[in-house]
Amino acid sequence: MDFNTIREFLIADTGLTALVGNNVFLFDRPEKCDCEDYITYSPKEMQSIGGGVRAYQLDMRVVSKNKLKLLAVKDRLIDLLDCHNRATNIKDNDAHIRKIRLINGGGIAKADNGDYYAFLYFYVII
């Protein structure tokens, strides 16, 4: 699966783009990008369930200098991605996310530079 598909799905949501714009990045924020509010995500392969089915842990990190905006972005991500009881429409030409659910809301931390970080972990079956 092309994990940029998740980015495309997220930035297509007007509620999320109102909060972070197009600042959703696979793995890390580019050094040239000077943005205060953004999301990074990284997939980690966990297992092959059998056949063509694979499981991943999707680690998401929300970064903001504003605590209230950070919480709003975190809640919107959960609304969009915690699909444990319904089918998803996240797919590319080769694969389809069958299930995705929140497994841990990891907490919030503050960095020395004043940025706040929220961590979310999702279990993804493709």
Overview of the structural elements:
By secondary structure, this protein is α+β, with helices and mostly antiparallel strands. Helices cover 24% and strands 40% of the residues. It contains three helices and five strands, in the order H-H-E-E-E-H-E-E. A five-stranded mixed sheet has the order 1-2-3-5-4. Strand 4 and strand 5 (116-125) form a beta hairpin. The protein is globular, with a radius of gyration of 14 Å. The termini are close together. The mean pLDDT is 90.
Task: Kindly list the characteristics that best describe this protein.
3 helices; 126 residues
Q: What's the SSE blueprint?
A:
Layout: H1 4-11, H2 14-20, E1 24-26, E2 38-50, E3 53-64, H3 67-81, E4 99-110, E5 116-125
Parallel strand pairs: 1-2
Antiparallel strand pairs: 2-3, 3-5, 4-5
Over the alpha carbons, how many angstroms does the gyration radius reach?
A: 14 Å
The helix fraction, in percent, is: 10-25%
Structural class: alpha+beta
Q: Sheet with the most strands?
A: 5 strands, mixed
Order of helices and strands: HHEEEHEE
Tertiary shape: globular
Question: Strand order, biggest sheet?
Answer: 1-2-3-5-4
Number of strands: 5
How many helices in DSSP terms?
3
Low-confidence stretches: none
Mean of residue pLDDT? 90
Instruction: Report how far the terminal alpha carbons are from each other.
Output: 8 Å
Strand content: 35-45%
